[in-house]
Design a protein that fits this description.
Low-confidence stretches: none
Structural class: mainly alpha
Number of helices: 3
Mean pLDDT: 77
Order of helices and strands: HHH
Radius of gyration: 23 Å
Shape: extended
Length: 81
Amino acid sequence: MEENKQDDENEYEPDFDLEDEEEILIEDKGGTNPDDDAFDEIVGCLQEIILSEEFENIQSDFFKKYYSIFTDDDENKLEYT
């Protein structure tokens, strides 16, 4: 009986490799609220910047250069300003 239970569980496992997945973008153009549309457009632009390879390189270089300055203290240092 235990063997049948394991077979049933394996039957419903997804049959795909996460590394082979393509990126899926869902985009909604326009809505009933112009403010929401403007906000969505701004967030989309920020997302493109943050996810870009150039931004990742800039961020990585910054961390490598300044990692020793930042600590886990509650107080801000003069170096932060």
